[in-house]
Amino acid sequence: MPYIDTKNDIPGIRGLMQFRPDAAIALNQFAQVLLADDASLSKLDRELIASFVSSRNECTFCMTSHGAIAAHHTGGTYELVEAVWRDYKSAPISEKLKALLNIADHVSKGGLHVTPGDIDAAREQGASDLDIHDTVLIAAAFCMFNRYVDGLGATTPDDPAFYEIIGKQRAEEGYLTKSVLIKD
Amino acid sequence: MAYINLRPDLFGITSLLDFRKETAEPLCRLTQMLLRGESSLTEAEREMIAAYVSSLNDCVFCSSAHTATTCALPGGKESRIQPMVSDLTELVISDKMKSLLHIAAKVQENGNRVTKEDIDVAKVSGATDLEIHDTVLIAALFCLYNRYVDGLATRTPADPAYYESLGKRLTTRGYLMPEDGYNPLKY
């Protein structure tokens, strides 16, 4: 149960968004550009960064839902995202993505934790300005989304089937379509 | 030197909004809605939440900018807010604002730090559900902005005149992206 009366029983961030539709429009358009676009980094890489930062922030709702979206960008298997949650340094991902996840990790602690050495390491693996920019912004964005969800005590379902449904929808449709959770 | 190639005549967040306009556009609209849209919190009160969270995140650019903006708005100066404020007892504000800033500080640490008791205190002080919602989202949004600005090491002007000029511009023109793009600030 959220801390405020949202006048709906939709779990997670969508329940908060129903309460404040004006904010929802901007938040979803922001997510669409940031996560559902293959400019430079792939959609999979973007969702892995989102889910990883959410795990660092201990936001179960965002970690699991963006983990499910990442899984659905790889045919519906969770092995890759689970490896990133466990220890991204040993996960079967590119050295470039590892260097970007290191930057994301430092962003999650605070912007001043990012060092020139972190940036140089990413550049050595071929990261462009846009890759680095988008990594920092995705990580920062999930420091917002995670705090929004948990700071208002949004409902976090336990059932993996819930995340399967929303993960599949967002991987296929992006962020601008009406949630399958909303019945009318 | 910023970590990526940004326009040399812009500072802080402005240089980033200019760098990637596709992400900046919805972000600016969200900010305009939260800080300038219809609300039972005054604009100065909402700017104060932004300034306070930015101070707690050690983000000099955002703290200086939103403190200057708070002070340029009606009722703002009277709060005695200063850049990089960390002690709420220094502020001359209502009990409701104290309870909302307390929630904002919890959000700054981590969303999971907010408790039902924190919310109850705010409600007893007269905060509405919408005010609590917006406080949490403003605090969360500045956890984004602060990391964005410092995580890419954007340039932070040292001259207080810059922030005074920026604060004035944000009170008169708000946060929406200018149609002709960002122009260097005169100060």
Account of the 3D structure:
The complex is a heterodimer of chains A (184) and B (187). Chain A has helices at residues 12-19, 21-35, 43-56, 60-72, 79-87, 95-109, 116-124, 129-151, 160-173. With 184 residues, chain A is an all-alpha fold. Chain A has a single domain (12-173), classed as Up-down Bundle (AhpD-like). The longest helix of chain A is centred in the C-terminal third of the chain and has 23 residues, at 129-151. The radius of gyration of chain A is 16 Å and the shape is globular. The model of chain A has no long low-confidence stretch (mean pLDDT 97). Chain B has 187 residues and is mainly α. Chain B has one domain (21-172): AhpD-like (Up-down Bundle). Helices cover 59% and strands 0% of the residues of chain B. Chain B is built from 8 helices and no strands. Chain B has helices at 12-19, 21-36, 43-56, 60-72, 95-109, 116-124, 129-151, 160-172. In chain B, helix 3 (43-56) packs parallel to helix 5 (95-109). Classes of the chains: A mainly alpha (184), B mainly alpha (187). At the A-B interface, helix 2, helix 6 and helix 8 of A face helix 2, helix 5 and helix 7 of B.
Q: Secondary structure elements and their pairing?
A:
The complex is a heterodimer of chains A (184) and B (187).
Chain A (H helix, E strand, L loop, with lengths): L11 H8 L1 H15 L7 H14 L3 H13 L6 H9 L7 H15 L6 H9 L4 H23 L8 H14 L11
Helix pairs in contact in A: 1-2, 3-4, 3-6, 3-8, 4-5, 4-9, 6-7, 6-8
Chain B lengths: L11 H8 L1 H16 L6 H14 L3 H13 L22 H15 L6 H9 L4 H23 L8 H13 L15
